C-alpha cells in the first residue's frame, strides 16, 4: 500500500493559478527559529516587490495570495498529505469492494480545495466542502472552481440548522479532514459533529500529528478517537505513520493517517459531552 504523493494534481493546478508570489524566504538562523513550534512557524513572502511576514496558520492571509499555499507547503516544505490520505482511502475502500465513484464526501477543513481536487482526480463524483473562514471558500472558487458541489463557511461546534439540513440531504457516506485537526483549527467537538453527519457504515479518512495521539495529549483528540473506537462508534481499518512535511528548520513532521468505518449513529450523550468540553 503506497503513501507516495501524486504531485501531478497540485502542480497542474498551480500552472493555472495566476500567482503574484515573487519569492518565499524561510527563516534560517537560530535566532529566527529558536523555540518556534509548528503552530508558530512563519515565512517572508515577496509580493509586488514588497516583503511581508506571514504566519503559516494565519490561513486568511495565506489564502488571499494566489498560489502561496501551494508554493509554500508543497513546493518548499514537501507536504504530501492530501494525496497520501486520499490514496490510502482509495486502496482501503477497494479492499472492501467499494469504489470512490460511489462516495459523497464531506471534506471538513476544506481550505483552498486541495483535498477536493485529489478526490475528484480519484473519481469521486460529489464533494461537499466545509471551512470556518470566507477566505478559504473564496480561494477555492478562485483557484479550483467546480471542485465542490457545495461549500459551506460554518462552525461545526455551533452548526446552523439550515447548514446541517443541507448537508444531511446530500447523505455523505465519507468524511475527509486533512492537515486540519488540532492547533485550534478544528477542535474535537467539531470533528465529532462531522462524524455525526456521515451515514452509518460510511468511511472516515483523516490525518493528525502523531503527538496528538500520545497519552499526554492535551488537545483532546487522543481521548476522543479512543472513545469512538472503544464504544464501537468507529472501527479503524488502517493506521499509517508518515512524513507530512518538513518544518521550517528542515526536520520531518510526522503525522498519522487513519482510515475507519462508522459503525453506528452517535448518541446525544457523547455529542453533548464533547460539546460541553469545548465551552
What does this structure look like?
The chain is an alpha/beta fold and 279 residues long. The protein has 2 domains: 8-76, no CATH class; 81-277, Rossmann fold, CATH 3.40.50. 36% of the residues lie in helices and 24% in strands. The protein contains 11 helices and 10 strands. The strands form 2 sheets. A 7-stranded mixed beta sheet has the order 6-5-4-7-8-10-9, with helices on both faces. Helix 7 links the parallel strand 5 (126-131) and strand 6 (150-153). Helix 9 (188-197) runs antiparallel to helix 11 (268-277). The longest helix has 15 residues, at 81-95.
- Largest sheet: number of strands, sense, barrel closure: 7 strands, mixed
Q: What CATH first level of the largest domain would be assigned?
A: Alpha Beta
Structural class: alpha/beta
Mean pLDDT figure: 91
Q: Which geometry do the CA atoms define? A: globular
Question: Ranges with pLDDT <50 over ≥5 residues?
Answer: 1-5
Strand content: 15-25%
Corresponding CATH architecture of the largest domain:
3-Layer(aba) Sandwich
Report the CATH topology name of the largest domain: Rossmann fold
Total beta-strand segments: 10
What order do the helices and strands come in, and which of them pair?
Blueprint: H1 8-16, E1 21-25, H2 30-33, E2 42-47, E3 50-55, H3 59-64, H4 68-76, H5 81-95, E4 104-108, H6 114-121, E5 126-131, H7 134-143, E6 150-153, H8 161-169, E7 174-177, H9 188-197, E8 203-209, H10 221-230, E9 234-246, E10 252-262, H11 268-277
Parallel strand pairs: 4-5, 4-7, 5-6, 7-8
Antiparallel strand pairs: 1-2, 2-3, 8-10, 9-10
Helix pairs in contact: 9-11
Amino acid at each position: 500500500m503506497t503513501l507516495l504523493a501524486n504531485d501531478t494534481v497540485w502542480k497542474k493546478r498551480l500552472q493555472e493559478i495566476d500567482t503574484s508570489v515573487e519569492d518565499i524566504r524561510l527563516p534560517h538562523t537560530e535566532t529566527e527559529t529558536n523555540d518556534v513550534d509548528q503552530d508558530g512557524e512563519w515565512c517572508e513572502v515577496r509580493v509586488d516587490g514588497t516583503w511581508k511576514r506571514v504566519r503559516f496558520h494565519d490561513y486568511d492571509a495565506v489564502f488571499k495570495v494566489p498560489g502561496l499555499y501551494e508554493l509554500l507547503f508543497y513546493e518548499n516544505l514537501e507536504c504530501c498529505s492530501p494525496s497520501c490520505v486520499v490514496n490510502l482511502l482509495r486502496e482501503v475502500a477497494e479492499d472492501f469492494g467499494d469504489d470512490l465513484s460511489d462516495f459523497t464526501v464531506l471534506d471538513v477543513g476544506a481550505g483552498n480545495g486541495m483535498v477536493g481536487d485529489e478526490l475528484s482526480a480519484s473519481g469521486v463524483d460529489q464533494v461537499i466542502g466545509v471551512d470556518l473562514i470566507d477566505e478559504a471558500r473564496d480561494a477555492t472558487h478562485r483557484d479550483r472552481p467546480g471542485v465542490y458541489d457545495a461549500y459551506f463557511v460554518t462552525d461545526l461546534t455551533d452548526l446552523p440548522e439550515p447548514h446541517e439540513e443541507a448537508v444531511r440531504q446530500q447523505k455523505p457516506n465519507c468524511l475527509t479532514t486533512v492537515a486540519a485537526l488540532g492547533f485550534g483549527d478544528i477542535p474535537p467537538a467539531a470533528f465529532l459533529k462531522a462524524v455525526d453527519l456521515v451515514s452509518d457504515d460510511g468511511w472516515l479518512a483523516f490525518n493528525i500529528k502523531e503527538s496528538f495521539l500520545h497519552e499526554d495529549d492535551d488537545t483532546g483528540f487522543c481521548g476522543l478517537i479512543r472513545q469512538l473506537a472503544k464504544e464501537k462508534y468507529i472501527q479503524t481499518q488502517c493506521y499509517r505513520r508518515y512524513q507530512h512535511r518538513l518544518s521550517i528548520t528542515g526536520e520531518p513532521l510526522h503525522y498519522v493517517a487513519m482510515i475507519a468505518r462508522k459503525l453506528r449513529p452517535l448518541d446525544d450523550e457523547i455529542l453533548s459531552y464533547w460539546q460541553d468540553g469545548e465551552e
